[in-house]
Write a structure and sequence with these properties.
Number of helices of chain A: 10
Shape of chain A: globular
Oligomer: heterodimer
Order of helices and strands of chain B: HHEEHEHEEEE
Shape of chain B: elongated
Number of helices of chain B: 4
Helix content of chain B: 10-25%
Radius of gyration of chain B: 18 Å
Structural class of chain B: alpha/beta
Largest interface: A-B, 31 and 31 residues
Strand order of the largest sheet of chain A: 1-2
Order of helices and strands of chain A: HHHHHHHHEEHH
Strand content of chain A: under 5%
Number of strands of chain A: 2
CATH class of the largest domain in chain B: Alpha Beta
CATH superfamily of the largest domain in chain B: Fe-S cluster assembly (FSCA)
Strand content of chain B: 15-25%
CATH topology of the largest domain in chain B: GMP Synthetase, Chain A, domain 3
Number of domains of chain B: 2
Number of strands of chain B: 7
Radius of gyration of chain A: 18 Å
Helix content of chain A: 55-70%
Distance between the termini of chain A: 16 Å
Structural class of chain A: mainly alpha
């Protein structure tokens, strides 16, 4: 698939390198989440959610494919090779997506945190000076609208469901909050992305906009929101460690990697 | 086919006519033109270039559509190029009135008109079987990425709606 016409040729080496890093984080986030979601296919708590999570997974892997193809046009490496041909250490997804599927409340909580953060990121990237990315994001955002609606319904349902549903949701959020911040891990070449307008605003600004946007929902539902607002700036009440936010991966991801690369490792270049 | 005919330049109109015969692989009664998937046709001295828009980014039918378009146009020119583009987002507003009619005929509720914003899903669809508006959204996700599942409380039929996007 060719994705539009590429002004990649007009970028200098530093800009290419910076853009490649950004695209890889976007691609790996969607790719890894898509595979975790697909783990619910066949075993979700109700039939509707079996269908929903399978669709969500298919959407995310489709989005990842677009980002990998944009990256492929930039580097000349084949998209499939980038998606499936790396060692686990080389994946750049955020630590929020390093956890296994766990239970239903955990998956719902993670999706909510990721989707709302991703929405802020996509909103910014729809104004990227790199036109192929801005165009793809415009399309992807329309689909993500459905993910946001789905996540909002389920967060409210579990939060107001009382009993075990509520307890499990709270427990999941306690575990996930510190890692949720890693969606907004600063990029090594962020200065280049900002000066070229490929990234229209600093990642730290996106992080604050995200917290500002979701704070009212957590307040209304009385769910854990471990931040203190100080002069409109949300400061975490826990020690933040974004070091390795996109580079350190645990055993759960090792297992998932083994699953999603199994065909590629058996026969690289295999087609359906 | 005589030599004169084979070298005759094909018109853009003929290309659109040919594309109108290419069926959507998942809903074969509707053509890719009626679904608004074809964005642009360009006739060049040696070949034809067509731009198509993905309905949903992760839609596996996209590759099948690209191949079907290329195959249908192959007799018309020496070189056929089918490019997938995001230069403008495909939206359900691109489905033609004829496409909407055919969707309904095939048992799908056509999408509701998309509102200006990004949240176009309305919880009501008109039943494609009995025309009732007393329907319930069962699931915004369905058998394919582009469909939502509804239930008609009048004729008691489940049905799918082409999801507004």
């Amino acid at each position: 698939m060719t994705v539009g016409t590429t002004p990649a040729a007009g970028l200098d080496a530093a800009a290419r390198e910076a853009l490649a890093e950004l695209l890889l984080t976007l691609a790996d986030d969607e790719f890894v989440l898509g595979f975790w979601d697909s783990e619910w296919t066949g075993i979700a708590p109700m039939l509707e959610e079996d269908v929903a999570f399978s669709s969500l997974a298919q959407d995310e892997i489709g989005h990842a494919r677009v980002y990998y193809e944009l990256l492929a046009e930039l580097t000349g490496d084949p998209a499939d090779g980038i998606a499936f041909g790396r060692e686990p250490e080389a994946y750049g997804h955020c630590r929020l997506l390093d956890h296994p599927r766990t239970d239903w409340a955990f998956s719902v909580a993670r999706r909510y945190l990721y989707d709302t953060a991703d929405a802020v990121r996509l909103e910014a990237l729809s104004r990227s000076s790199y036109r192929p990315l801005a165009d793809a994001v415009a399309k992807i955002r329309r689909e993500e609208t459905y993910h946001l609606m789905h996540g909002d319904v389920w967060l409210r349902r579990l939060a107001t469901g009382g009993g075990e549903a509520r307890t499990r949701l709270e427990e999941a959020l306690e575990v996930l909050w510190p890692d949720a911040l890693t969606v907004f891990t600063p990029l090594a070449r962020e200065d280049v992305l900002l000066s070229t307008g490929m990234l229209p605003e600093p990642i730290s600004v996106m992080q604050q906009r995200w917290l500002t946007r979701i704070a009212p929902t957590f307040a209304a539902l009385g769910l854990p929101f471990p931040f203190l607002a100080d002069d409109s700036i949300y400061r975490p009440t826990f020690p933040v460690d974004l070091g390795g936010g996109r580079t350190q991966h645990g055993d759960a991801f090792q297992w998932l990697w083994g699953e999603f690369t199994s065909v590629h490792r058996l026969e690289a270049g295999a087609v359906w | 086919m005589t030599a004169t005919e084979s070298t005759r330049a094909v018109s853009e109109w003929e290309v659109w006519e040919a594309l109108a015969e290419v069926a959507d692989p998942e809903i074969p009664t509707v053509s890719v033109v009626d679904l608004g998937i074809v964005r642009q046709v360009e006739v060049m001295p040696r070949g034809i270039r067509v731009e198509i828009l993905p309905t949903f980014v992760g839609c596996p039918a996209l590759d099948a559509i690209r191949d079907a378009v290329a195959e249908r146009l192959a007799p018309l020119a020496a070189e056929i190029q089918v490019d997938v583009t995001f230069a403008e987002p495909w939206t359900t507003e691109r489905i033609s009135p004829e496409g909407r009619r055919r969707l309904r005929e095939s048992g799908f509720a056509p999408p509701m008109p998309a509102t200006a914003g990004l949240v176009p899903l309305l919880p009501v669809a008109r039943c494609p079987f009995c025309d009732s508006r007393r329907t319930v959204l069962e699931n915004p996700f369905g058998s394919t990425l582009c469909r939502a599942i509804y239930y008609c409380t009048d004729c008691r039929q489940p049905f799918e709606q082409f999801k507004a996007v």
